[in-house]
Amino acid sequence: xxxxxxxxxxxxxxxxxxxxxxxxxxxxxxxxxxxxxxxxxxxxxxxxxxxxxxxxxxxxxxxxxxxxxxxxxxxxxxxxxxxxxxxxxxxxxxxxxxxxxxxxxxxxxxxxxxxxxxxxxxxxxxxxxxxxxxxxxxxxxxxxxxxxxxxxxxxxxxxxxxxxxxxxxxxxxxxxxxxxxxxxxxxxxxxxxxxxxxxxxxxxxxxxxxxxxxxxxxxxxxxxxxxxxxxxxxxxxxxxxxxxxxxxxxxxxxxxxxxxxxxxxxxxxxxxxxxxxxxxxxxxxxxxxxxxxxxxxxxxxxxxxxxxxxxxxxxxxxxxxxxxxxxxxxxxxxxxxxxxxxxxxxxxxxxxxxxxxxxxxxxxxxxxxxxxxxxxxxxxxxxxxxxxxxxxxxxxxxxxxxxxxxxxxxxxxxxxxxxxxxxxxxxxxxxxxxxxxxxxxxxxxxxxxxxxxxxxxxxxxxxxxxxxxxxxxxxxxxxxxxxxxxxxxxxxxxxxxxxxxxxxxxxxxxxxxxxxxxxxxxxxxxxxxxxxxxxxxxxxxxxxxxxxxxxxxxxxxxxxxxxxxxxxxxxxxxxxxxxxxxxxxxxxxxxxxxxxxxxxxxxxxxxxxxxxxxxxxxxxxxxxxxxxxxxxxxxxxxxxxxxxxxxxxxxxxxxxxxxxxxxxxxxxxxxxxxxxxxxxxxxxxxxxxxxxxxxxxxxxxxxxxxxxxxxxxxxxxxxxxxxxxxxxxxxxxxxxxxxxxxxxxxxxxxxxxxxxxxxxxxxxxxxxxxxxxxxxxxxxxxxxxxxxxxxxxxxxxxxxxxxxxxxxxxxxxxxxxxxxxxxxxxxxxxxxxxxxxxxxxxxxxxxxxxxxxxxxxxxxxxxxxxxxxxxxxxxxxxxxxxxxxxxxxxxxxxxxxxxxxxxxxxxxxxxxxxxxxxxxxxxxxxxxxxxxxxxxxxxxxxxx
Length: 944
Known about the structure:
Low-confidence stretches: none
Structural class: alpha+beta
Distance between the termini: 61 Å
CATH class of one domain: Alpha Beta
Largest sheet: 7 strands, mixed
């Protein structure tokens, strides 16, 4: 029987659906294993061959764990909200829901062809009200919670309200937006609105003034990763920094727990370090600086209070409220012009850019340690969100301060004995302190650090600051609160209405609040978000339902929130919903959550290190505090797959002609390289007729060939439509089959590494599968499998493979597994092996990689159940023991020939046999060997 992969793959994909092969339920008799891929966004272009890389890797592991007897959960769904569908809606008028469903259907069709073991019964879509019900529910829980620093957990906001009525906020240790103080009497005297404003300072989900990336053309706030070089990634529109009142999540309250949790999970060291740097924990002191000739004072945070004596200027972030207060009339025009320029740069760009810019405010601050008046500057290398948005500059010992001081001619004062700051700043982590204070000035305070080590000086200064009320010792984090508003249509609606300008939650029983229909997907003429076009978008608090806007009376009917939630809202707790997707009463049933616990293996790209992977960990920790999630960390082990890059092809057009010259002849002409569609190129040879038919301008193309062929040039680039190097997996599946695609993607290289797509090697993988098939059927369709006992050599080949593949799968070294399969099948083919005892085990071992052909052969071998339900074979070391050892025979360290000896042969017997061999006599040449060295099971070296 011929290997007809098209019929085999269609047959088994159909049977898997009919027999519900991949549907899974909780089973207390089995150990669970939860495999998850990062949520895909269904784009209009569909999948290219790079997209399935991680899915194939995780699918192999899921199938392997199932064969080991685990109850495996391997779900799939769609992160269905996103700007591309909305932009398409703006351009065409087609509702984003229609676009999204079409895209999902296309994705599903492509995914099904590749043969994944997804449990589609658990499919979720973030745009489905049944799903975002629980996103809205979690948001309401966050709104109604505060973070208690003493308990290190989220607590009900009602606790604060009760405490405020009795004690005010004295002694309160809670995460907040700003430090405020009030008594119980003051609290009780406040209006409802005033109380709500105070509570907003503590809520985990809160409305706050914050700097955002504002894109006027798109009419929305953008996340940092949606902005590139000052323009929107989508559309290339200008983006500026703008202060807006936005919904935020108090992620910063969880900073220490996010850090601590990294020690409990199996992620790569590099990814953990990325998160640690993003969270940015630093211990230091907050110190007060008075403004010269003013009653104003401001606070700075420093990790190195011991360097206060070296402060020669101060720097404010452009967004700081102090800028307006400290800018003098003489400097206002210059400062305003500078602020206008910095609005166009995101924080990420400012962090990455080392160029020096700034402007003098006109004001001076008094150094509390020296009494000196130091100039206050404004520069975009200081960020408003870190610390207080103001820094003390110590240019002798900080590289950015040093560059700034050099550029603007400011004093650089060294504080470490013997350090040279003539060319660059000195990293003052070790050494003896000097100039603290300078010996040639009258001391301003009674602190002297001179002669102390750096370490001693840090502790002495912290103590001094605290004892003299100059500030306070504090732990600071770089991690910001997450901006949670978007001025878009296509996103989760907030379950929020406004009374007297303050937000209130709709009743939990009324969830989900569904996205309304709108006439336009653009912002309104008055600048409101697209939901401002909705005519039925008001909340009736009596009847608990959405009603027409005209019924708003601000008594019982109130306006609803016009912003929608950001992209990460729906992807932050989706792993919990997969456990129990059809539950209408809860996000997840506690018993079911107790069974699946968390994700054992999470597979996705490194680009999510500081976005999704921070937000989802925060979200899960909050749900853990609420008693919803039984595990504090959502993803126990994380594997980052690399990227499959495009392998572009080029043709070379002779200038001012329509003639194309082959690669190795191009240097004889003046040519222009042009990208050509890789799908009309095979092994770098161009299909001439297909090229002529590709585009109208090439219909009359002429060619200068080499050896009768047109050879294309090539380069490794990002896979994109503009470079015509996108390879559609459907084409590979149609030509070679899904099993070939699966194995080839894994064969390209280690899962974690990026590598170029190159179809030049795919034939070899396809030939391997055909050769594997030929162990079962002859070329004349004769069934070859017998019940004869396996030989020693056959068992050795098989068990060597099982040992190798078992170890490789655990390490995600799939590329070396596939090499091992090829070696094993070649060995068995040469041994003319057709023993059922061997082939059954081989089929099971290959099944995670090539499930379709293995299902077919498993069925042919007489099994009535799926190969998925077989048992993973265990290797037997007895079969791997070598009977003979191949020794390399060397003379004076140079290998000359090889000899076989029994594995347990004695050294003196080996020596005698080697010396007696006639080949040895040639190299000994009548001389007496000085020494004979036998390295057991490896080499014999004769020293002459």
